[in-house]
Each structure stands twice: as structure tokens, then as C-alpha cells.
Amino acid sequence: MAKNAMRRVTKTIFITINLIISLLFLVACLSPYINPANWWLNGFTGLIVPYLILVLIFFVIFWITVKPRLVWIPLITLLAGWQQLIVVFAWHPGMGFSKQKHDAVLRIVDWNVQSFNGLSKTKQEKKLMPNELAATAARYYLHAGIQQCIQCR
Fold first, then answer.
1. CA–centroid distance for 119 within its chain
2. What does 47-91 look like in DSSP terms, one character per residue?
3. What is the pLDDT of residues 60-84, one digit of tens each?
4. Closest Cα partner for 50 from 77, 89, 92, 90?
5. Local structure of 101: helix, strand or coil
6. Residues sharing a CB contact under 8 Å with residue 18, sequence separation 6 or more, in sequence order
7. Deepest in the core among 13, 58, 99, 118, taking most CB within 10 A?
8. What is the reported pTM?
């Protein structure tokens, strides 16, 4: 008798956790459409989307092995939020990268340059870092300008 009660309580807890995670994921899927100024909580749910996806995948595997009938809860949730899945994992099937770009397109490349001048943490080197980066950029643009000027002739 106690074994059945414990099993029922455990099953209820797992289903409740699964429903809460599913609800949080679906609310997080609305984050591109809801202004965080109107509803600030949605901004935080958008930050935990990758973790919610992992938990939902765990629940898919868990319910397949324990109670296959309940696998539909996380599976339908993941299918309803397929757009967030594509955004999180940056998977764009059929889209290739083109080296040719239109004149109206601006491409931006960003690098993490925290350790650009090595791993030194001395105050003197930190003070010089912005000047060195600016000088490097100036040299590049000066060289590029000279090359462009030579090609114009």
C-alpha cells in the first residue's frame, strides 16, 4: 500500500515539474514578441531557454523509458517552440554563406580581444592597451587608404 502511494506521489511530482518546465519554455518562446518593458519577467525566461531545452530533452528520454504515454508533454512543447530551438542551436538548413554581398549590406565581425596583448594584468599594460589598439586600427586604415588610392589611379 505504501509502495503504491509513494509511486503515485513521485509520478505526480515528475508530471508537475514537467508541466512547469514546459510552461516556462512556452513563455520564454514568447520573448521575441513581448516587450520586456511591459512584462520584465519574460526577459529572464529568455535567458534560461537553453537549460529548459536540455531539461525537456531529458524529460523526453525519461518518459520514453518510464511511461511512454507521457512523452507527448515535453515533445509537443519542444515542437511548439521549434523556432526557439533553431535560434538557440543556430541551425539554418539550406542556407549557405555567400562571400558576395550586396552594396546595401553591412557585415560586422566581432572578436573577443580581452587578451589581445597577452595575459598580463599590470596597470601599465592595461593603460597602454586602448592606445595600442587605436594605433593598430589607424595603421590598418592608413594602409588600406593608400592601397585604395593606388588602385584608383
1. 28
2. HTHHHHHHHHHHHHHHHHHH-GGGGHHHHHHHHHTHHHHHHHHT-
3. 999 999 999 999 999 999 999 988 8
4. 89
5. coil
6. 59, 63, 70, 73, 74
7. 58
8. 0.61
